[in-house]
Amino acid sequence: MARNVSALVLLAAVTAGCTTFQDEPISPETSAAAFEARRLDSSEVRAFLETDLHREMTPWPPKQWSLDLLALAACYYQPQVKVAQAQWQVAEAGIRTAGQWPHPALRFTPQYVTNTGGGISPWIVDFSVLAPIETAGKRGYRIARARNLATAARLNTATLAWQVHSRVRTSLLNLYTALHTESLQQEQVRLQQQTVEMQEKQLQRGEISQLVLSQARIALDQARLSLIGTSKQIAQDRAALAAALALPEAALTRIDLSFTCLEKVPSSLLAAEVRKAALWSRPDVLSSLADYQAAQSDLQLEIARQYPDISLGPAYEFDQGQNEWGIGLAVTLPIFNQNQGPIAAAEAKRREAAERFYALQISVISQVEQAAVGYSKALDVLKVAESILAQRTDQEKIAQRQFEVGDISRLELLTVEQDRNAASLSRLQSFVGVQQALGALEDAVMRPLVCEDSVPNPKE
Questions:
Q1: All structural domains of the chain
Q2: I need a surface site. Which of 169, 339, 448, 460 has the fewest CB within 10 A?
Q3: Taking a C-beta distance cutoff of 8 angstroms, is the pair 433, 378 a contact?
Q4: Under a CB-based contact definition with an 8 Å cutoff, are residues 256 and 65 in contact?
């Protein structure tokens, strides 16, 4: 009974720290319902924003949702970021796995001798406990490799968070463009409608031909058709913004959007400074560097495995009534190879990681330089468009004064107003081009150059 109790106590001690399985079933119906219930003004989103921004969100919900708040909320909801976070947790668990000490081995070999003499026990019991001892710093190299892989996974989370930010910015810019285009097209329809009405009167007085009136009516129909197309585009852009936020489209009907971040245009961005910032802070560059460091640690580990580990521990043998004590020792003999195959593979993987880093570095430099040139040229186009708009605006003011004193007709004034409206539309397109180029430059740096609070801290 004492032996049985001892065995039960030993078994309980061994299994006391074991983790038990907990079933967590997934229900498609429940997850779909949870998606439909998502809102920007939820308490969970508020807590996420306050944690990342290090400030209290008052009032809540905010009166307007700007790019920085929308991008952070998207990082809370987007499934790609959650997948990256889960992968990061897997890598973090790898650090614990790498640091675990190997378990000792219990060896028990009972034997029974059938031809023993009288009075001698027929049993021979061999009992030993061997504790593995890792040599050459293998455990430290394993931990270093796991930590570098965890760092790479964390930085990959930051990379995906930036991709979410970029998608939100693009969607918000498209919606901004469509809304402002609609406003200018409405003005164009109004001016063209007045032109048609005045030319109809001119036709009745015989001052113009039917052909001239038909051309005016065609221009009006084309303006109306463009307005209808823009209205459709607004609906599509709202749906695209909801998708970028990982929200149902209905969630956007209750919020007021702010486009302040999209109306700021930095006048000068030095390519050298932007390139330096990209090479020093882009999370994918830092992640690639961490992967290289992990490959280095892996090579060190394989080199260390040339040296065998030792298993050492006490041994006891009961040999036909004799109690014998000793020291158990086990060593792997590196006779057939010195781990040269895994070492060669680890060296090749390190070279591969290095080449990946160099390739990414060159790609980043090229991307930054191209984006910087594109942004500079887009600014030049915007300056010309703004100059043309300023001239058209001055002409409109002059024409208005001439109309008031009777020097020109209402129809001539309408023509000048339409030219000014067309210049406004051209300036809008140029401005959007600048914002698109700025977005490309921000993508090259993976950092906002206007609204600094629009990317979450990956550690939080």
A1: 44-445 (1.20.1600.10)
A2: 460
A3: yes
A4: yes
